[in-house]
Structure formats: structure tokens, C-alpha cells
Amino acid sequence: MAYALGIDLGGTKILAGVVDVDTGEVLSTAIQLTKGTHGHGDLLERIGDVAEDALQQAHHTRSEITAAGIGAAGQVDTEQGVLIRAPNLPSTLVGTPISAELAHKLGCSVVLVNDVVAAAAGEAGFGAGRGYSDFVCIFVGTGIGGAIYQDGHPWTGATNTAGELGHMVIEVGGRTCGCGGRGHLEAYASHSAVMRTILGALRQGRESVLGHLEPNPNPDDRAHSSIRYHALAEAVTSGDALAVEMIQEGARYLSSGLVSIVNFYNPPLIVLGGGMIKELDLFYETAAERVRREALQVPGQKLAVARASLGANSGIVGAALLAFQESTQRI
Q1: How many CA atoms lie within 13 A of 261 on its CB side?
Q2: For the whole model, what pTM was predicted?
Q3: Which of 80, 121, 175, 290 counts the highest number of beta carbons within 10 A?
């Protein structure tokens, strides 16, 4: 048996796990918050700590770990092991030699990849993408990230940034995206985008059960909203008109982006994951049904759409698997 560390580095939390790379089993996990760190040194120290916690819980030592993989929410230079751009992570982390510094700290080789590339690798090895050598993976949460699997491996393009599907333009001159661009898919179908429309509607006086959770709605302060995924799901289940309308609207926008992917790239499978997919059946079902119906007939009929099946562990499993594969190639 071989073991590797997988680390999911997000804007709000750091999740680490010890993974059996032969079976995909996660032997242990540990978590710490990303926010509250002071500078890149503090954050790297915290990553090292959460990795050590995961090792202790799995009753393993560093010497028993083959490699460590980190999936980070941002654009990554995998060869240099640095973040190129990461709007949801501390800015001081951009340009820091993350792989090198953590390799010294953990005592093993460290691979840095985009977080959805890592999730796609997990799903390819042990989840919804198993058995497919080619597929597209899209995770819809705070933002929208994507990854392309080709011939059994992540395809990252000429500059290692392929797969930024959340930044395809679906409306010329449309809403401003968090990246500064206009009309991007992420500005219409992400959790942040859907929450903005809901909070805006509440502020204008729309009736909804969600109004009880948000007495002073502010569309520009979505991060501190009291409305979580569970509350959205309950509102949809109860038939709340505003929740149903806005969830379906976001799903229609998502399906428009998916249709463009299918018509252009013709993948046999699209794997959808992230909080919006995992927690909101209406969002997933609306998007999946519409993409098959609205794509060109031949690729649409041959398309499979599946939910990511590894849940919150997709990223750590995939990061561990990619790190292990790279370490064995070096031998």
C-alpha cells in the first residue's frame, strides 16, 4: 500500500487528508481556517500543522508518506510550484514558492495544482469519472472552477491555466465578475451570483421565507449573509417562489455555459460538483436537463452528466493521487 497527503487550500478553510492511493480511501482528515492568517509564512505554517494533524489521526509518520499534493483555489504554475493568481487567497501567497517551502517542512515532494484539477483527478481515479479517459469537470460554489481531462490526464493548456470555464463570456458587457471581466459565467451561476440576486430581491421587498434569515439584506455583502446552502434547499423544498426562481435562473445560466462546452469540445461526460450541485437538487437537475436538450443534437444525445461522487474529499484524493503519480515518475 502507498500513502500520500492531499491538501485542499480554499479561501475559507484548509482540508488535509491521508489517502491510500491504491484504493482512494481517505484514512483521516483535519481542517483549519484559512482566514485569520498573517502573511504567507503564517499560512504555510498552518498548512503544515493541518497536514501533521491528519498524519497523527491516521497513525502515520512523515516517513510513511510518499508525496503531498495541494489543490489551491487559483491559477497555478505547476512547474514552479507557485500561485499566479488567487483572488480568494491572501495576496501575499501569490508568487511564493509553495511547493518548495512545504517540501522542506513536510520532508517529501510536494505538487501544487489548481483545486478543480485536483478534484477532477479524484473523480477520474475513484469517482464519477472512473472509466472515462476524457471528460470535463466543473465545480460550482463561491465561484466556478473547471478542469479538462484528456487521455487520462489533466489538460492544462499552453500556460497551465486551461479549464477556467467560469470565465467564459455568456453575456457581452454583462455583470462584472470577481476577476474584473464582464459577463462571465461565474457572475451569473455561482453561489455568490445567486445570493446577490436573492439578496437584491429581498431588499426590493420580495416576499420569501429567506427574508426571516436576512432582515437587512445587502447584495454587496454576500459573505456575511445568514442564508446558507441548507436554508436555500429548505426554501426550495417548501416551494418558496423566490428561492425556486433564482435557483432555476442560476441553473439556466450554468446550462448555457455547459451547452457551449458541449458544442465546442464534445466531451462524453461532464462531472458537476461543488456546494450548489451537492446541496441543491433543483439546481443540478435543471442544468443537467437543459444542457442535454439545448446542445447540438448529436453531442447532446451522447452526453452523460454526473454529480461528483467523492463529495468534499474529491480535492484531497485527487491532489494526493497526482502527487503520488509525479513522485513515482521521478524514480
Answers
A1: 30
A2: 0.92
A3: 121
List b or e across 291-328, with b for residues whose CB sees 16 or more CB atoms inside 10 angstroms: bbeebeeebbeebebbbbbbebbbbbbbbbbbbbbbbe
Q: What is the dihedral of CA 275, 96, 92, 145, to 10 degrees?
A: -20
CA–CA distance, 270 with 135 (Å, rounded to integer): 6
Q: How far apart are CA 296 and CA 287, in angstroms?
A: 15
Assigned fold of 128-309: Nucleotidyltransferase; domain 5 (3.30.420)
CB atoms inside a 10 Å sphere around CB 225: 19
Q: What is the pLDDT of residues 214-265, one digit of tens each?
A: 988 999 888 788 899 999 999 999 999 999 999 999 999 999 999 999 999 9
Q: Which residue has the cell 445568514?
A: 226
Contact 2, 318 (CB under 8 A): no
What are the φ and ψ backbone dihedral angles of 178, each rounded to 5 degrees?
-60, -20
Asked whether the predicted pLDDT for residue 175 surpasses 70, the reply is yes
Q: Helices in 27-126 by DSSP H: which ranges? A: 39-57, 98-106, 115-126
Rg, the chain, Cα only:
20
d(CA 214, CA 220): 13
Indicate whether 331 pLDDT > 60: no
166, three cell numbers: 467560469
Read off the pLDDT of each residue in 74-95 and give the average, rounded to a whole number.
Answer: 85
Q: Which amino acid is at 158?
A: A
The burial class, CB within 10 Å (0-12 / 13-18 / 19+), for 270 is buried
Report domain extents, the chain.
3-115+312-330, 128-309
Strand positions, DSSP E, the chain:
3-9, 13-20, 25-33, 67-72, 75-77, 82-85, 109-114, 135-140, 144-150, 153-155, 269-273, 304-307
Q: State how far the alpha carbon of 322 is from the alpha carbons of 27, 120, 121, 164, 262, in Å.
A: 17, 10, 7, 19, 26
The CATH homologous superfamily for domain 3-115+312-330 is ATPase, nucleotide binding domain (3.30.420.40)
Confidence label for 10 from pLDDT (cuts 50, 70 and 90): confident
pLDDT in tens, 301-320: 999 999 999 988 999 999 99
